[in-house]
Amino acid sequence: MMVKLYGIPNCDTMKKAIRWLGEHGITYQFHNYKKVGVDEKLLRQWVDRVGWEALLNRRGMMWRRLDDSVKAEINEESAIRVMLETPSIIKRPVLETDKTLNVGFTEEAYSKLFS
C-alpha cells in the first residue's frame, strides 16, 4: 500500500503521526508543504473527497493571522486560494493511501486505517 504523509515537520501533531507510523513499521513518503508547497489539482481532489472545511485549519496561528475580511467571506474557492498561498494553514497531517484520505491524527483513526 502506498502511503503519503503531507504536512510540515516541526508540527507537534505531525511528530505524533510520524512516531506512530514508525512504531508500527509503516513506510510512507513525506511531502513537506514548507519546501514543496501543495499542488492545486491535488488540493482540489482533496476538497472533493473531504470538503474544504475539513482541510482548513481554523485553530492555528496562520488562520489568526488572516485578514478578518478574508475570514468573513470564506467559501470553497477562497479557502482553496488561501490554502494554496499558505499551505501551513492546511490541517495536519493529511495521510493519503490508495483508498483513503485522513485529515488530522488520532491513534484510533490510524489503527483503524492500518488494521
UniProtKB/TrEMBL annotation:
Record Pfam families: ArsC (PF03960)
The organism's place on the tree of life at top rank: Bacteria
Signal peptide: none
PROSITE patterns named in the record: ARSC (PS51353)
InterPro entries with a match to the protein in the record: Arsenate_reductase-like, Thioredoxin-like_sf, Tscrpt_reg_Spx/MgsR
SUPFAM superfamilies in alphabetical order: Thioredoxin-like
Family: Belongs to the ArsC family.
Protein name: Regulatory protein Spx
Taxonomic source organism: Candidatus Thiodiazotropha endolucinida
